[in-house]
Specification:
The chain is of the alpha/beta class. Helix content is about 25%, strand content about 25%. The strands form three sheets. It has a nine-stranded mixed beta sheet, sandwiched between helices. Strands 9-12 form a two-stranded antiparallel sheet. It has a two-stranded antiparallel ribbon with strand order 10-11. α2 runs parallel beside α3. The longest helix has 14 residues. The N and C termini lie far apart (about 65 Å).
């Protein structure tokens, strides 16, 4: 039976993680290692300033007082003496569409698995009600994962509409859209009168064309976006080299 490592960024007690476990438990041997509290927005950060505490919970899950990437690092690197066949992160409480992937701890957990050599999937529900739908989607993908071939250092980012299973329109392979700039932070005062700031909500969609993850979700489809960890803008290399050459000549 296949061995799966599950993690998330909403915390080890999150309903989405439990729904993912319940959906996959009959199909694989599961190991759950997740943050001991909500770490949404942690992105790919690792805890390097102190040692990490790993705690076994009564339900068989393990919690870590660190980031999602910390959890996957510990889960993959021999805490129990064997590596998983697949890393799945989620089910996130909310979407990870477009630019969200740059900040998402859910995507980062999957990316850490991919960086450590494991195939990886990030699962998100675009809402907070129908986790069973997203769980069934995850089970379907895991069942077919053995025949999936991705380039090195790639992973899948999956977003599921927050509807009953019967209302899903199907599956679409998509590209990332992107959002416009976020609005201004919200200034508030604490009980002592000191000024504090809430980070503002994400900006409005700037690219939600028909082949994007945004458009798929809006139409009721599961969005499946292959992601890569190589952030190089290859099309810009020649232009930057020309700029540098010109700079050298004028210098």
């Amino acid at each position: 039976m296949r061995k799966l490592l599950l993690s998330n960024d909403d915390g080890v007690h999150a309903p989405g993680l439990r729904a993912l476990y319940d959906a996959l438990n009959a199909h694989a041997r599961l190991r759950v290692v997740a943050p001991d509290r909500d770490k949404s927005g942690a992105s790919n950060s690792l805890t390097l300033s102190r040692p990490l505490a790993l705690a076994a919970l009564d339900n068989g899950f393990y919690s870590v007082d660190g980031t999602p990437a910390d959890c996957v690092y510990l889960g993959v690197n021999g805490v129990w003496g064997e590596k998983p066949d697949l890393v799945i992160s989620g089910i996130n409480h909310g979407s990870n569409l477009g630019d969200d992937v740059l900040y998402s701890g859910t995507v980062a957990a999957a990316m850490e698995g991919r960086n450590l050599g494991m195939p990886a999937i990030a699962m998100s529900l675009v809402g907070s009600r129908h986790f069973k739908t997203a769980g069934r989607v995850a089970a379907s993908l895991v069942g077919a994962a053995g025949s999936l071939s991705l380039p090195p250092r790639s992973l899948l980012n999956v977003n599921v509409p927050d509807v009953p299973w019967e209302e899903l329109q199907g599956f679409r392979v998509t590209r990332m859209g992107y959002r416009g700039p976020a609005t201004q932070p919200l200034e508030v005062k604490d009980p002592r009168g000191r000024v504090r700031y809430w980070i503002a909500a994400a900006g409005e969609n700037a690219d939600d064309g028909p082949d994007t993850d945004f458009a798929a979700i809006e139409a009721g489809y599961v969005s499946i976006t292959p992601l890569q960890t190589d952030l190089t803008r290859h099309a810009a290399l020649e232009g930057v080299q020309g700029w540098l050459d010109a700079l050298s000549r004028t210098g």
